[in-house]
Amino acid sequence: MTRILAVARRRLLHSIPVVAIVVLGVFALLEAAPGDAVDAYLVIGGGDAEMIQRLRQEWGLDRSFLARLGAYLTALAHLDLGWSVAFARPVSAVLFERLPNTLMMMAAAICFSFSAGTLLGIAAGARPGSLRDRILSLVSLGLYAMPSFWLGLMLLVGFAVKLAWFPLGGIESVGMGKTGLARALDIARHLVLPVLSLGLIYLALYLRLMRTGMIEAWRSDYIRTARAKGLTPRRIAFRHAARNALLPVVTMLGLQAGALLSGSVVVESVFAIPGMGRLAFEAVTQRDVPLLLGVFLISTLMVILANLFVDLLYARLDPRVAAEG
Question: Domain 91-324 carries which CATH code?
Answer without folding.
Answer: 1.10.3720.10
